[in-house]
């Protein structure tokens, strides 16, 4: 059973960097002839609001992403949905943000196991967007061979869904040994994908694939990856001595650093940082060195604004903005000197915080100062990209609201 309410933020956060790059429209210039005058300049394209300060109130319905997971590149949203024409066979949909209809849609896995999907990822390889999907496949046994499960990873062209490569990872490929069984409590997932690497988390193990070919680069048992930033994979390393945060080279898996301070989770962040949160504190660590860049009390969620700021919040108890270059806090709420409603942060982009302010509804804050930027806005978008605000509703699916200012 798909559960729309289960939203993978790390996915939303890892998935948001790719969404910021709008592809150029392909085209071929006409061959010059005497009857074909050549333009002296290309026509100007209308400016796209970014960051957006206003949105259309009515959004374009894009459909219902399975498990609430989606990825965006340019003006297209990609997601999986249940195919009504076949039981338990999901379709991969590429939805036009402008028109609200699929650019293309196709069944993607006839052998998938229900509720065993990992997050969908988008990465740009050699200038072209690619989609990466992983899932548990069940192979029907014959004779004395029983049914078995394996992890299948596929790469596709984002333009039309053409499959580029497929890799099956059976028990003999598992870093923890051939007796490894996939966990239903912690199903395999794609942590991140870049031009070079696809990082997979499998229970307490990691497998890193070549993004262009699917060839396995390395695997590591007792290391569950959580983020890929630049050339470093950061995750949780376990041993008889306990748990620690570890940074490993994406190329070969060699450990570069570790930090044994207590923590509960690791979240991808960007800007050369990861979030390491626990019940008593949240730390921002440099991915290359493990150096602590900033520390704040209690458990926080942190998001990079894609430029120079980190915004962290603890529900409606605390909100702060941190300079990504030096780790210094720029401001924080609550502000004892002002009577302000504590905002609930929904998303962040390019110096703007999109939030709700209790009964006052959606609001936009200036992430550099913490002050109100726009006090009356139509929506509080789940994700903001150039030209659009995307809203993921538990009741109605995914909607694209055009940015109007």
Automatic annotation (TrEMBL):
Pyrrolo-quinoline quinone repeat domain: residues covered: 152-261
**Which SUPFAM superfamilies does its entry note?**
Quinoprotein alcohol dehydrogenase-like
Keywords attached to this Swiss-Prot or TrEMBL record, sorted alphabetically, are: Signal
User: Which Pfam families does the protein's record reference?
Assistant: PQQ_2 (PF13360)
Q: Where is the composition biased (Low complexity)?
A: 23-47
Region Disordered, residue ranges: 23-50
Q: Does the keyword Signal apply?
A: yes
Q: Which residues form the signal peptide?
A: 1-18
* Keyword Signal carried by entry: yes
Q: Which PANTHER family match?
A: CELL SURFACE PROTEIN (PTHR34512), OUTER MEMBRANE PROTEIN ASSEMBLY FACTOR BAMB (PTHR34512:SF30)
Q: What is this protein called?
A: Pyrrolo-quinoline quinone repeat domain-containing protein
Species of origin: Rhizocola hellebori
């Amino acid at each position: 059973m798909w559960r729309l309410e289960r939203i993978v933020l790390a996915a939303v956060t890892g998935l948001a960097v790719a969404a910021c790059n709008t592809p150029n429209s392909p085209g071929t210039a006409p061959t010059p002839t005497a009857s074909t005058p050549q333009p002296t300049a290309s026509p100007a394209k209308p400016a796209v609001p970014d960051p957006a300060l206003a949105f259309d109130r009515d959004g374009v319905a894009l459909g219902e992403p399975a498990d609430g997971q989606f990825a965006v590149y340019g003006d297209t949203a990609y997601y999986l949905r249940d195919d009504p024409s076949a039981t338990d066979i999901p379709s991969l949909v590429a939805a036009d943000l402008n028109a609200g209809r699929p650019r293309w849609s196709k069944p993607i896995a006839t052998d998938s196991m229900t509720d065993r999907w990992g997050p969908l990822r988008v990465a740009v390889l050699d200038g072209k967007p690619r989609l990466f999907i992983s899932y548990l496949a069940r192979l029907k046994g014959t004779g004395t061979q029983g049914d078995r499960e394996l992890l299948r990873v596929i790469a596709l062209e984002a333009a039309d869904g053409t499959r580029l490569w497929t890799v099956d990872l059976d028990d003999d490929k598992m870093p923890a040994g051939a007796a490894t069984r996939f966990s239903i409590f912690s199903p395999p997932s794609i942590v991140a994908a870049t031009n070079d690497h696809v990082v997979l988390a499998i229970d307490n193990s990691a497998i890193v694939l070549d993004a262009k070919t699917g060839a396995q680069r390395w695997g590591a048992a007792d290391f569950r990856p959580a983020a890929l930033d630049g050339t470093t994979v950061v995750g949780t390393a376990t041993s008889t001595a306990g748990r620690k945060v570890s940074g490993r080279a994406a190329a070969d898996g060699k450990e570069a650093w570790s930090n044994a301070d207590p923590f509960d989770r690791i979240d991808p962040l960007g800007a050369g940082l990861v979030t390491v949160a626990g019940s008593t504190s949240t730390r921002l660590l440099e991915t290359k060195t493990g150096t602590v860049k900033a520390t704040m009390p209690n458990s926080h969620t942190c998001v990079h604004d894609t430029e120079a700021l980190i915004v962290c919040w603890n529900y409606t108890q605390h909100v702060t903005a941190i300079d990504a270059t030096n780790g210094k806090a720029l401001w924080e709420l609550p502000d004892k000197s002002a009577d302000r409603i504590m905002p609930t942060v929904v998303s962040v982009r390019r110096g703007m915080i999109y939030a709700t302010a209790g009964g006052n509804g959606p609001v936009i804050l200036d992430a550099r100062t913490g002050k109100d930027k726009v006090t009356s806005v139509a929506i509080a978008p789940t994700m903001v990209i150039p030209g659009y605000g995307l809203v993921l509703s538990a009741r109605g699916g995914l909607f694209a609201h055009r940015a109007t200012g």
